[in-house]
Structures are given as C-alpha cells and as structure tokens.
Amino acid sequence: MFFNSLHFAAFLPIVFILYWFVCNKNKSGQNSLLIIASYYFYACWDWRFLFLLVFSTLLDYFSGIQIEKSNSVRESKFWFWLSIIINLGFLGIFKYYNFFAISFAELINGFGFQVNPLLIKVILPVGISFYTFHGLSYVIDIYYKRIKAEYNFIDYSLFVSYFPLLVAGPIERATHLLPQVKVKREFNFQKANEGIHQIIWGLVKKVVIADSCAMYANEVFNNQEQMNSLSLILGAIYFSFQIYGDFSGYSDIALGTSKLFGIDLLKNFNFPYFSRDIAEFWRRWHISLSSWFRDYLYIPLGGSIGGKWMQVRNTFIIFLVSGFWHGANWTFIAWGLINAIYFLPLLLLNRNRSNLEDINFKWNVQGLQTIINILLTFSITTFAWIFFRAKSISEALLYVKNMFTNLNFEIQYLSNERYAPELLLLIGVFVMIEWFHKYKTEPISGEHENIKLLFCILAILALGVFSDYKEFIYFQF
Fold first, then answer.
1. Closest CA to 265 of 358, 356, 168
2. By the 8 A CB rule, do 27 and 181 touch?
3. What are 122-145's pLDDT values in tens digits?
4. CB 277 within 8 A of CB 346
5. Would you please indicate which residues are annotated as catalytic (active-site) residues?
C-alpha cells in the first residue's frame, strides 16, 4: 500500500475513525487496532512476509526478557547474540546472499576456475532493514542496561510494526516510541491539524517534485550514451531532488500520519540541501539512520575518543556500512566510500562540527560565503548520487566520463516531450519555498493557510494524474 494511493486514502480515515470513536476507551484498544491496521498495511505488499515480521517481533520480545532475567553474564550474552545473529542472518539471506555468492564466483572465475553460484530466488521483504534495526536497537539497549525489557507483548509489537514507519522509517528507538504507546492517547486538534498539513506537504514533495524529477532522471540515466554534458549534469540534479522529495516526502507523510494518532516520530530530515559542509549534510539527511550508526556502531568502535587514525578508521567503516545497508550492490559501497572521502578533510582539520548553528543568512560577504558553501556541498553530494543511482560501477564511471568530456551544453529535447527549463523552474520554486520556511516543519501552515493548502492539493491532483512513477525509492532498502 503506497502513501500516494487511493487505497491509503480510504484506509487512513477508516483507521482514524475507529481509533478515536470506537477504540478510544483505553490504550490497549488503541494499540490493538493499530497493530491490526499495521499488519493489514504490511500484508498488502505480500501477506507471506507477515510471518517474518511476527517471528522477528517474537524473537526480540523474548530475547529482551531473557536478557533482563538472566542470572549470569554468560546467559545474558547467549540471548543477546542469539537475537543479533538471527536478525542479521535473516537480513543477510534475503538482502545480501546473492550479492556475496555472485561476487565470490566472479572472484574465483577471475583465477581461471569456473564456478556457478547457487542463487536463491526470493523477493526482498519490504521494510526488513527498518524493522530489523528497530529490534536490534531494542535488544542492544536492554543488554547494556539502558532500558528495561517490555513485558507487554501488544505494546512491543506496536513498537516494531507501527504502520507509518514500518516499511521506510524513520528508524525509531524504544526510548522514544515505547513510552508513547504505553499510555492512552487523547485527541489533540492542533497536533492532528499539524499532521494533515505535514501529510499534504509530504505528498507535494513526492508527487509534484520527486515524481516529476523521476521522469527526467530516468530518461537521462537510461539513455546516458545519447546525452550531452548539460543533460547529464541536469540528470544528476534531477535525481538529487527526486531522492530528496521521495524519501523526505515519505518521512513527512509518516510523521504527519502518526500525529493523527497522537504519536510523535523522530524527525528524519532537516533541509539537508542547505548544508554548508558534508558533515552538516549527514546531520540533516536520514537523521534516524545516521544517529543509529553513530550510537550502535561508531561509538562502540571507539568514536572520536582515540587518535586521528582511529577516527578515520571508524568514519570509513560507518560510511561503508551505511552504503552497504542501502543495498547489495557495489555502487552503494562506492557511494559510501565517496562520502567518507568527502568527510576526511573536515575530520583531519577538526572542522566536522563547525556548522552546528542554524543558518543566519545576511546579504554581506559572510552571506555570500554561506551560499557558496551550500552550492559546493550540494554539488559534491549530487556527484555522489550518480553512483547511488547507477546500476553498476562501470555505468556510473561512464556517466561521469561523458559528463566531463562531452562538453556539449545545448538543451536536448527528451523523448518524454518535456524541456529541461520547465522542471528547473519547478525545482527553483520548491527550493525557494523551503528556504523561506526552513525553520518550520512544513510551509503550509500560518498566514493564508487555506489558500496554500488548496494550491498544494490542486498541484498534487494535477501532476499525480499524469505520473507513472508511484513507488518510493527507499522501499527497496
């Protein structure tokens, strides 16, 4: 079930009405309804993978209790590692087995031996990377005595399977979400109103921006050999806004939907394309994943406590693992490596935390430097996205080669019967709206609220009718 589908448009009001008018007596009724709705939401993709979701939930629920009840360190470690190994094992089999099998076979074949790898034909369960990380953080926090185990199975099940975040995040923490599901929620009109506005703006990002950019980006990347330098540069820019509008739009819809049920989710995006360096970008992009790797991988590895060599090592590990988390392809690892290289000068010069304050733009020399830094950061980020979008390393390298060697900057008329300036104007308007509302959750609320809301709905309907690109990019991860 897509957030941008008629199915979801019918599903959400039904759940909302049942939640506040039928199951509002106590939190058990509210939570039970949300679990049923979440399982239905997930079953719409493939009902067979519900068993995997339920198994993962049961595994971490009982493992957490056993870790807390253990009478010895050895027993506690047993349940801890049982949960970790099984969780990562399922993730490895479904997401990475074929990648490792093919890569190993290619390596052996390179030495002159013929190996035909045994591959498994299975669909990647949607959202497995996200709900697996929910369970992992929960078990890890119990093991290190940061939280207590949850004994109420309904409450814990909702924490893992809550439908707004189930298939593409944000990646929640038990310390943030569990306390909210353990109490009865009371209807708050202001929060619900904020949620509706955030949903609408998320749909604008997805349907108006991301889907429009997708048509152009796909045309350029799929026909890169016929594209000149200008088209290739624009194709990379289109994809940058496609993935931002797509993923941050999904997060906005998820957060807004959750507010309708009185639950706050973690903020996942904070205007990342207004970052002044790559370190700030990663504090603003996919915040829940970046903070997860920081707390559960970077810090345990030693973080920034050791010398420069240890900091560099840990930084490269984080970026490479982050790239690999996105998918079983060398392109994602290359994308992670490129971002690690970007980050390295800031780390060595101790400037990786130099832009922690909000942007205070003024029309002076410092303001001009801020704009230059933002454009530079966006440019190198867009370059890295080429490897993220390409199907292979060789395809990405060919794209980059043609972009820098073709040197033809005439506007090409693409086969989808659109000229580039039309989309660039739309992107420019979108950037200006976000710039002037960068300290707000969304730009719709406030002055002339109803007019802006109506305009956004009309834009969604107008462009949504002609869009043939419905899926969200991060569903594949």
1. 168
2. yes
3. 777 888 889 999 999 999 999 999
4. yes
5. 326
